[in-house]
Amino acid sequence: MSGYERPLRLAMVGGGKDAFIGAVHRHAAALDGRYQLVAGALSSTPERSRASGEALGLAPERSYGSWQDLLAGEKAREDGAEVISIVTPNHLHFPVALAAVQAGFHVICDKPLVHTLAQAQELEQAVQQSGTVFAVTYNYSGYPLIRQAREMVRGGVLGEVRKVIAEYHQGWLATGSEGKQADWRTDPSRSGPAGALGDIGTHAEQLVSFVTGLELSAVAAELTHFVPGRALDDDASMLLRFAGGAKGLLTVSQIEIGRENDLRLSVFGSRGSLSWCQENPNVLIYDQLAAPRQLLTRGGPGLGAAAQQATRLPAGHPEAFIEAFANIYTGVADDIAARQRGEQLEALYPTVQDGVQGVKFMERVLESAADDGRWTAF
Amino acid sequence: MSGYERPLRLAMVGGGKDAFIGAVHRHAAALDGRYQLVAGALSSTPERSRASGEALGLAPERSYGSWQDLLAGEKAREDGAEVISIVTPNHLHFPVALAAVQAGFHVICDKPLVHTLAQAQELEQAVQQSGTVFAVTYNYSGYPLIRQAREMVRGGVLGEVRKVIAEYHQGWLATGSEGKQADWRTDPSRSGPAGALGDIGTHAEQLVSFVTGLELSAVAAELTHFVPGRALDDDASMLLRFAGGAKGLLTVSQIEIGRENDLRLSVFGSRGSLSWCQENPNVLIYDQLAAPRQLLTRGGPGLGAAAQQATRLPAGHPEAFIEAFANIYTGVADDIAARQRGEQLEALYPTVQDGVQGVKFMERVLESAADDGRWTAF
Amino acid sequence: MSGYERPLRLAMVGGGKDAFIGAVHRHAAALDGRYQLVAGALSSTPERSRASGEALGLAPERSYGSWQDLLAGEKAREDGAEVISIVTPNHLHFPVALAAVQAGFHVICDKPLVHTLAQAQELEQAVQQSGTVFAVTYNYSGYPLIRQAREMVRGGVLGEVRKVIAEYHQGWLATGSEGKQADWRTDPSRSGPAGALGDIGTHAEQLVSFVTGLELSAVAAELTHFVPGRALDDDASMLLRFAGGAKGLLTVSQIEIGRENDLRLSVFGSRGSLSWCQENPNVLIYDQLAAPRQLLTRGGPGLGAAAQQATRLPAGHPEAFIEAFANIYTGVADDIAARQRGEQLEALYPTVQDGVQGVKFMERVLESAADDGRWTAF
Amino acid sequence: MSGYERPLRLAMVGGGKDAFIGAVHRHAAALDGRYQLVAGALSSTPERSRASGEALGLAPERSYGSWQDLLAGEKAREDGAEVISIVTPNHLHFPVALAAVQAGFHVICDKPLVHTLAQAQELEQAVQQSGTVFAVTYNYSGYPLIRQAREMVRGGVLGEVRKVIAEYHQGWLATGSEGKQADWRTDPSRSGPAGALGDIGTHAEQLVSFVTGLELSAVAAELTHFVPGRALDDDASMLLRFAGGAKGLLTVSQIEIGRENDLRLSVFGSRGSLSWCQENPNVLIYDQLAAPRQLLTRGGPGLGAAAQQATRLPAGHPEAFIEAFANIYTGVADDIAARQRGEQLEALYPTVQDGVQGVKFMERVLESAADDGRWTAF
């Protein structure tokens, strides 16, 4: 960032009072002072939307009863919202995002982007046509040490990448009686065709891609629902092949009792390796051939520019989930500001292309699983 | 919090462009949307203050050249600041805080509060007379699991407290050539009579007191400066006695190479014990007689009301330093709102009394150390 | 053990001076005083065998030039060896073990048992006919907390087992220029048809089976050699299906730079889960639905009989690899003593059946990998 | 070791059936095959001694009813014991050790060596006169990574040592009703004038001395017994001053519920620091100025000769308590063999001088504590 930037005017679709992820987006937007929440269509009914808007201090006339009203209303105002955050259940991502993009808003959309690859590609095209900024909150790529890993891997520090292991372990859906947050995630009409695969598997895939730049060539997958009667997978494991010969392993689950939000990534190359774990995000384990293990710490010695730029506090003063999430929001704000100055920024936030890739990944995995785990090409 | 609260108008004294702690206060104030930064006297010269103000988007007329001007200017405005954050080097805490309190502002002041017990008590009296809110940013007491520890210890879960170990390990002042952040901290005219003791020892002491409620009865201390030529201690170790027979050990250092911000607390009682470490703040280790160790996690099962109230995210989505710091700011905002509603809140943020206690602690430690470690009564 | 047992007379085939695993077997045999090494055919040439025998204090006439001589010589002595340890490269396991069993010796044989399932079954039959004790040193099943896990899982503590993750990460074969220990392991004529799969994959599979009792129904596998020119796999990943519906994931590698001997097992059930890691073997992580994580420690509270029986030291006095290995040796000695007393023991050491299962596992994995990862039934 | 050494004939005083430490000594003696247990006076009564001897397979005539009989009997035999292990409660160390030394036996004696400095010095003189080997089982100095730390610190790798922190946390004596192992340790007539201080404090002090070579110049100590009615300290904390200006902190406790055998050492120098923890003994944390933390692992890259010599297994195959203890026994055996060959060995096992130092340390601490924590010179 060069000098002070006026806060961007933000509107939010979804994210009403009891929603987990809406509050996260608001904290992330607030942290660096780069956004001001000015409008919302926060819940699925007009009444609940307005109640949520009031609780957040929105002006009554900008607490809309529907997302359609929000887009129209804000479009019409001179001081209307510039950026739309979409934090609804998955099935609303596509219509809201498409309409917002077509109306010329910048968009920050939760993941997985949409239900089908066709929708994803339509959206991607709309973004290209509108020229707006479009970010997908693959928030884990906002962690400073993930950016450090990316810089190291892509800079060749590990040699040739041979093997990647991505794991995302959760246990909060182990019983089938988990309440609202669980309900829509396990309902195909709202969550889409994938359960854990879509909810957290796409995070794991994006992290692999973000860090390594490897291109998936094929997947062999096994999807399972362990909770009786559940309509979507609550567990997914798969083998991966990448262009160029690297191999991978990806496993995600929401029925592993005791695992909270245990996302892990390990990248093994011909000269070294890196390992990182989301629940202890301020440490990156770095191993080299025939040398003692090194622990790279956020804010500590030995880090490159990408990590430093994503860091607010000195080493030992831990940053965590919200700060990483805020790095996405602030990256979007930086990019918008750069574009307004006529500059081009190498933006590290995930874009609509990442969103498309996530949907393609889901489709290929579903296809492989439906075909008894046959290797399915990308 | 009950419903939406209008953001409080915040002014900041100190915290200009290169200052570490000023930025932390701003993030903490922003995170929950409870404050709006409206004014500042951010640096020690008018020019640098205004430059910093501009970089933060302050209106030029509210970016003051001195703290005196700030207090006068904001006092005079109808929409003037309601809360003053004081984030200067230590020697300015006293005059700024006293004037702010006497002018009727709420104050959030960094630690250690002031240089001498006499100053501290004068300030305490002023706060009592003004009836304003006065918080001291012993920010580590904002961590959810520290509040959980407090609830457990004070609720008798550990039985009678026997022994407390407080440690605060840093290494960033190991060489004597560390730059601006180090310079004022090791300069008695700005830092006060204590070095590491004041800078981090007071945090450790406050944590002990906050969690256990034990009252210090005597201290036997050894202060050292290991870096040649340094005017203040960069290392302090001491034995503690508490009223009622508990014992303690407290060690802090800023010359322990490799230690980043390694604050630890262990409390041992007759029926159980608790251990916590700031660099891994989302876990509280809980041991009971003849039972397996339990790991209590922020957001996880088994936590009491105090921890839950200080928590924003589900388990496994780590919260960290800024979130804990924000819990102080948000606690102050809650308290101000409650007072405005005519209600009384059991506020958990550290108050001027905690600040007074910290200064008293410093004085007693200095006294003991000057007397070759003799046990010195409180 | 009930009372003092005379040390068993032990002879060793393989395990000469530079051999890693031979020394491990000798430490394991010595630790509890239950064996006395009396004879050996320690190396692949008579000269080196005798040199090694001298270095170990064997009587010259009992330091044999070949394993054939050893079996014949010891058979002929009144004070001849009772137990034969086979610690040669894999390709010698079969002929030596078969001859030893047929000659009536008890046998402790390293893993993987033999090269082919046909050999394994022939050996199994020979053991049944001879009635001798036959152990396979799947040594990781000797760890006290692995036995605790077994007791808990089989006792239903976790509810129905849903998912198992077994990992065995090593990095010492990452370059292809690792010397003697590496050479035979990557040479099909000595190591057999599997590389990492046989060397460490069989350990992982046996651990799953030992702890859970689940029966493998099918495997879908991907074998890779990342080091150019290597004739055998140095990395193997696979998806598992078990009878009854449980699923699994197994990955092993010897090219993951920085990983030393990182064997891990996690078992997830419908009511709880367990996780264990070989490099930190004195802790077993136990999670239950809606309860704080517990850390079960070797020697600590809450353990069952199986773990206690395998434990020598109080909690906090760590036991490790050799102690676990010794639990196999001591288990064999206990079983021999029980048989001599005419008693039957529920022996927990791995037997020839475990060895057969390991070879079958290798064959199925090789078959699946050769068929592009098709699910291959057991 | 150069080539095969005949096992030394070992006799044991104390260490009968229920004794914890006797079994440890036997495992340690057995592990490397350097000792053969040939005789014992294992318990405090002749009957129990003989029962214990039978359980261990001793010849009846060498299972003595008293230590006096043992020394006399073994002295008289041509194949008599060469080394005497003394594993009795503390009050018997002095008479048994003195008599054994005077009779010309090599001795391995548990710690703390004796009750008083006068006894210690008398024993030291006897050892000098006899010319025998005398080891004190400060077993923690047998850990490979402690030897690595010693080599690094003494080799100047950390620069000038500034601060040392030694901690030994246990919780097993928290209630006062812990049974036999606790009873003698808390009985002054058997344990001596110190409780936790003698039992574990001497270990901590020896580790500091072994690693750093620093000479204690003064101590300021606080001893406490937290369990009502206990006659000896169960908790001790102290500040240390070393010749040359280094400072230290030492705390030990046996009432810290949940702590198993948590011995820790940190050494901070002007250029780097080291940290080690007994419960995770295969890792040594190494920090340097302005460089990422390194983890040195037993058997891993970057280790010096001292650690390598004390290592049996490759990295990742953990060694632990018994292996470290065995390094003391094997060091004694090596030294005896070297002397028999007329060579001189730089032996790293703790000697009678270390034992004397430990008793002196206890006396100074007791003196300081009795004088309200006054700094007491060495």
What gyration radius of chain A follows from the Cα positions, in whole Å?
20 Å
Determine the fraction of residues in helical runs of chain A and give it as a percent range.
25-40%
Q: Please state the average pLDDT score of chain A.
A: 95
End-to-end gap of chain A: 38 Å
User: CATH class of the largest domain in chain A, anyone?
Assistant: Alpha Beta
Shape of chain A: globular
Total tally of structural domains of chain A: 2
CATH topology of the largest domain in chain A: Dihydrodipicolinate Reductase, domain 2
Q: Structural class of chain A, please?
A: alpha/beta
CATH superfamily of the largest domain in chain A: Dihydrodipicolinate Reductase, domain 2
Strands of chain A, count: 14
Low-confidence stretches of chain A: none
* Greatest interface and its participating residue counts: A-B, 45 and 45 residues
Count of helical segments of chain A? 12
Largest sheet of chain A: 9 strands, mixed
Topology:
Four copies of one chain form a homotetramer.
Chain A: E1 8-13, H1 20-31, E2 35-41, H2 46-55, H3 67-76, E3 83-86, H4 93-102, E4 106-109, H5 117-130, E5 134-136, H6 144-154, E6 161-169, H7 180-185, H8 188-191, H9 196-212, E7 216-224, E8 235-242, E9 247-253, E10 262-269, E11 272-277, E12 283-288, E13 293-297, H10 305-309, H11 321-340, H12 352-370, E14 376-377
Parallel strand pairs in A: 1-2, 1-3, 3-4, 4-5, 6-9
Antiparallel strand pairs in A: 6-10, 7-8, 7-14, 8-9, 10-11, 11-12, 12-13
Helix pairs in contact in A: 1-11, 4-5, 5-12, 6-9, 9-12
